[in-house]
Structures are given as structure tokens and as C-alpha cells.
Amino acid sequence: MIKHMILRNILYRPVRTLITIIAVGVEVTLVLTVVGLTSGMLSDTAKRIEGIGADIMVQPPSASVFMAFSGAPMPIEIGQRLGQIKNVQSVAPVLLQFNSTNGLDIIYGIDPVTFSEVSGGFVFHEGHGLQAHDDILVDDWYAKGRKVKVGDTLHVLGHDFHVAGIVEHGKGARLFVLMSTLQDLSGARDKASVFFIKCDSPDQTEKVIGLINVLLPHYEVRPLRDYMSLMTSSHLPGLKTFIDSMIWLAVAIGFLVILLSMYTTIIERTREIGILKSLGASRSYVVRVILSETTALCLAGIVLGFGMSYGVRMLFLTIFPTLTILITPSWLLKAAGLAIAGGWLGATYPAWLASRKDPIEALAYE
């Protein structure tokens, strides 16, 4: 009986029902896209850093774990002192530069020899390593997304580079140039942003970290095995606040739409509610009908939102192939929970209003 009544009520105003479902779908899509985009970018960056294969990362004092936000304040001579520490097998200085030309990318300025010693070297799909001043290496994801081939000219950092090779992804960045070239372009002569250190045995990592802390007090020394756990929104000032703000904005959209939709529904169905109450329907029964109808609308919106989220993800990956957007089962459940919670919150006042209607006044309502 109650299921039949809810279905008839939903179908009685198809346009309003459709708008409500779409609004809940937009709420779910907004939550999944914002969270998926940020967590995907952080996860992808962390995996590429771990893919270098180093055991320890040394940064300047107070440097962020997000290396794109670090400058190049460390003298490159520090690398020689790090290399003299016992159990240190090799040290690779890397200069970082953020590029916003034709997209957002981090460019690694590397010394091919030391970077190869720490990382085990690139796996080449095409071409060769960095040899000339203007050579640049791109990873396979970047090459596929930007349709770059060996021999092409790539304009980044206001400079024309010659694409010397295409390498397997997962070695820290998507673009690599000679460190000397990047130092010239960024005005950071004899500077490095980070040192990647390879120990002669992973078991010696903690011991080497202790020695580095003595040699370079106040510098940021991190084991790479813990890097993934550090790449969360809580470690980037403002990012967690931004994500929370977007989530609450999405919940507010669902709340307001459900509130308006159910409020107008109650006004239109005043006589119906009067009939129900005159037949003996209790206040709790009326509230249950309103909340059940809200739940049905939210569930339809959630299903639509899931589909829209994967559609937006597909669109983003088509336009920006190097992006990573993670839509995880846990956040699917959280987004659904937020949509239902926002819907119930929005339906609370209309349900309370309906339950308090006097049956005689409701039946006399025109």
C-alpha cells in the first residue's frame, strides 16, 4: 500500500521528480569528482616518486612533502657530503621546475649518470637518453596524451626542446631534462631541490637517516617507503579545507532541492494528507511516507550520480590523458550516504509540517 502510494506520488509530477533526481545526481558527481581528482593526483604523484627506487629523500628545512612547492635552495655540493656517509651507495640531485605551458607539469632536471644509479635507469620505448643541452625525455603517458613523437620540438618553460626519447612512466616526473639546462633556465646555478639517496641495503635506511640528521640538522629527511602515506590532502595547507568546502556545497545543493521539492509536495497534497489522517494515519506514518519518498528520489539520484561521475571521469581523461581520477568504493558509499543524509535533512521540516496538519483543516483546504 505505502509503496504504491509513494510510486504514484513520485510519478504524479514527473518534471519536478526529474529535477530533484538530477540535483541529487549533481551532488554525488561533485563529491566524487572533487575527491577523485585530488586523491588521484596525489596518489599518482606518490607512486611516481616511489617508482624512482630511492630509499631516502633529502629536502631543505621546512620543505613541503609536495615537491612542486619547493624551490631550489640547496647547494649541489651537499650531494658530495651525502655520498661520503657510510652505507650510502649513490646520491642523485634533482632540480624541480613547475611548468604551466600547455598544461601543468613538473620537470625534473637530472644528472643522467647519478639518476640512473639511484633509479636503475629508464626503460626506453623509443629514442635515446639526454645528450644535448636542449634534449628532453617524455614518459609514455605524456607522449600518448600530447601526441608527442621522438624528434618533435616541445615548447616548455619558454624554451624549444628536442624530444630525444620516450621512456616508461613511473620515474618521478613525466618530463626530464639535463640539470644544467634547467639550472640555466631557472637561474638556479649549482642548486638542487631534492637529493634522492640509495643505500647499499634497505636495512640501513634508518641508520643512514640518523647520520644525515647529524650532518644536516633541520633538513627534511624522509624514507621513501613512507612517502605514500604522507601524500594526503591533510599535508597540503588549504587542500583539505577546499575539499571539505566542496563536499558541504554539494550536500547543501541536495538539501535545498529536497527541501523545496518536498515542501511544495506537502502544500499540493494537503487534502490527501487530510484524508490519510481522517482514516487514522498517525503522525509517524505520515513522516514515514514523506521520508520514504525522499529516500526513493535520493536512490535514483545516487544511481544517476554514479553514472555521471564515470562520464565526467571519461571526459576529463579524454581531454587530459595524464590525469588520474580515483573513484573508490569507499567514496561511492560515502557520497551515497551524504546524498541520503542531505535528502533526509531537507525532508525533515516538510515531514514535520505534514504530520501536524489538522485533518479537518486539511480536508477544507482548496
Structural classification: alpha+beta
Determine the strand fraction and express it as a percent band. 15-25%
Calculate Rg over CA atoms.
Answer: 29 Å
Distance between the termini: 26 Å
Low-confidence stretches: none
User: What helical percentage do the residues reach?
Assistant: 40-55%
**Strands, total number:** 12
Order of helices and strands: HHEEHEEHEEHEEEHEEHEHHHHHH
The profile of the biggest β sheet is:
10 strands, mixed
Explain what the structure shows:
With 366 residues, the chain is α+β, with helices and mostly antiparallel strands. It is built from 13 helices and 12 strands. The strands form 2 sheets. Strands 1, 3, 4, 5, 6, 7, 8, 9, 11 and 12 form a 10-stranded mixed beta sheet that branches. It has a two-stranded antiparallel sheet with strand order 2-10. Strand 3 and strand 4 form a beta hairpin. Helix 2 (14-50) packs antiparallel against helix 9 (239-268), helix 2 (14-50) packs antiparallel against helix 12 and helix 11 packs antiparallel against helix 12. The mean pLDDT is 84.
